[in-house]
Amino acid sequence: MRASAVKLLVLLASLGVAVSACQDRQRTRRVLEAFVVVPGTPSVDEKAPQVDTDPTRATDTFSVNVPRQCDTFTQLSVRKVDILWVVDSSGSMGPKQQRLAANFQGFINQLVAAMPPIDFHIAVTTTDSDDPATRGRLRQWSLGALRDDFISCAPDMQGTVICNTGGNTATAVMAFNQMAQVGTAGSPQERGLFAAYLALTNPLNLSTDAVVRFVRPEAALYVVFVSDEDDASCTPLTRQPVCTADPGCRCANDQILTAAGNWGSTEYFTRFFETYKGYGNGDAVAVAAITAIDPDAGVPSQFGDPSPHVGCCRNQRDPDAGCPTSGTNDGGLEIAYFGSRYVQVAAQTGGVAVDICQNDFSGALASLGFSASGLRREFRLTRGPDVRPLNGLARGLEAFVSPPTSMMCMVDGNCPVDQFCRNGRCARRVEVRTDGPTNGAQYVQCDLAGLRNMVRFEGTSVPESLSTVEVCYDVLANFQTTCP
Fold first, then answer.
1. Any alpha helices (H) in 407-446, and if so which ranges?
2. pTM to 2 decimals?
3. How far apart are CA 188 and CA 418, in angstroms?
4. CA angle 326, 328, 331 (to 5 degrees)
5. Peptide bond into 416 cis (omega under 30)
6. Could you tell me which of 399, 455, 462 has the C-alpha nearest to residue 427?
7. Which residues contact 196 (CB under 8 A, 6 or more apart)?
8. Rounded to an integer, what distance in angstroms lies between the CA atom of residue 30 and that of residue 324?
9. How far apart are CA 293 and CA 355, in angstroms?
10. What DSSP string describes 463-476?
11. Which pLDDT tens digits describe the chain residue by residue (484 residues)?
């Protein structure tokens, strides 16, 4: 045998020994398990899947997981505000104009009492837009040698308010009394919304770099309508063929407004006011209304109109006595018809509406002055809350108010016993109700058939300037955005 063949046999033998050394000597054993063949015919369950539950198990602690929303607001008073009064000059407005003038001091007081005092302009126009020569013009005042078409009051370096009427706010009240008593010879078709549009777009009323007039670009705007009938504004702004105004649709068929039967949409005027200071600055404009605000109260008709109407009534012979809810006015009653269009625009711009038939205007004007100062009573929520009324309380909704002097904090333990740490400041919890407290907070979903979705503070509960208001609530997925 050759040497090479011997070497090959030795190599193969070595590999065989190595392979045999790597083999696993552990053998796998088969396990024999006992089994039984079940008798019967095989079948398949064709029912739908279901979950077996234990009826004795309590499941009331389980609920749908919903998002929690917290809206935070800062209570800020304005530094400058231009206030336009649009006063009805029709034949039935005499007593209302007198009460407006007699109680205007309460409105002025709120502007002066604001901290810091507010720089304000006040002007008056009427609801009469028939005459192209006078519509869009402001009413004049005259005190001695002084005269103008708006009132201007501003604080000096010492904080004293000085007015262009010749002194302090007492002279401003005198000037307003002249402007507000616009008489009763105006058009019976009260186009208040259109009149405000004309006044606010009239170049004679707008400030320029060289001349300061009523409307200032840097000031907030507050518009107040005073009328005992609903708005009758028409085209050419937009068309709204269906009118719900009470006592009826009386759009003019003339060369100025044209197209009888077409009504200027309230949504148009809302957009006009909200964008007047530029897009995104809707909070700088608000609308208020002194009108009949109750759509459910029946009142007598007047001027020979036999159809029934809704609104409010004041007995001039006996202010404390009531009025009939139907029939005709015998001359001893002060009637006002429901101002639905004014109320709607006020609601949509975050303003307020007050009753024109109340005997004393002082409280209403003080409330309007407070609103004009920029201090808000109403805080709109960004989403729909899951509010569950219980004994007058708004369960599911919490409100907290942090005054500007409140302590800084990190946890509740850093705050007084009755306060909570919210956003780094100590805050008091405010009880929110659903039944309209005199001094407190109330959740309002609908107000006069309009969606509000807000927390409204009344009386002494209104947060002071520079306060932080936080409202937290569970979001309701199927929140209703329409009102009855």
1. none
2. 0.68
3. 57
4. 130
5. no
6. 399
7. 84, 86, 125, 223, 225, 269
8. 105
9. 6
10. PPTT-EEEEEEEBP
11. 555 655 555 555 565 555 555 555 556 666 666 767 767 777 777 777 776 666 665 555 555 667 889 999 888 767 888 999 999 998 888 888 888 888 888 888 877 777 667 889 999 999 988 887 788 899 999 999 999 999 999 888 777 888 999 877 889 999 999 998 888 888 887 889 989 999 999 999 999 999 999 999 988 899 999 999 888 886 444 444 455 555 555 554 433 444 444 556 788 888 889 899 888 777 788 888 999 888 888 888 776 676 778 888 888 777 777 788 777 776 778 888 888 889 888 888 877 888 888 876 676 677 677 667 767 778 889 899 999 998 889 998 999 999 888 999 999 999 999 999 998 999 999 999 998 776 789 999 887 657 888 898 877 788 887 889 999 999 998 898 887 7
Matching residue, tokens 């004049």: 140
Dihedral (Cα; 380, 385, 389, 392), 10-degree rounding: -20
**HSE, side-chain direction, 13 A CA sphere, residue 317:** 8
C-alpha angle 433-439-444 in degrees, rounded to nearest 5 = 35
Distance CA 221, CA 216 (A): 9
Instruction: Kindly provide the b/e burial profile for residues 317-354, where b requires at least 16 CB atoms within 10 angstroms of the residue's own CB.
Output: eeeeeebeeeeebeeebbbbbbbbbbbbbbbbbbbbbb
- Which burial class, exposed, middle or buried, applies to 47 when counting CB atoms under 10 A from its CB (0-12, 13-18, 19+)? exposed
Q: For residue 415, what are its two tokens?
A: 């705050």
Which has the closest alpha carbon to 472: 386, 402, 378? 386
Rounded to whole angstroms, the Cα distance separating 359 from 362 reads 9
Choose among 406, 403, 396: nearest CA to 433. 396
| 70, β-bridge pairs | 472
The answer, yes or no, to whether the previous bond of 484 is cis (omega within 30 of 0) is: no
Give yes or no for a contact between 219 and 81, defined as CB atoms under 8 angstroms apart.
yes
| CA dihedral sign of residues 117, 379, 294, 390 | negative
Q: Which amino acid is at 73?
A: F
The full length of the chain comes to 484
Nearest to 438 by CA among 467, 461, 454, 464: 461
Residue ranges of the alpha helices (H) in 114-209? 169-180, 192-201
In order of their start, the domains of the chain are: 78-293+338-376 (3.40.50.410), 380-474 (no CATH)
Task: Yes or no: say if 229 and 247 are a contact pair by the CB < 8 Å rule.
Answer: yes
Over the Cα atoms of the chain, what is R_g? Answer: 37
276-280-283 Cα angle (round to 5): 70
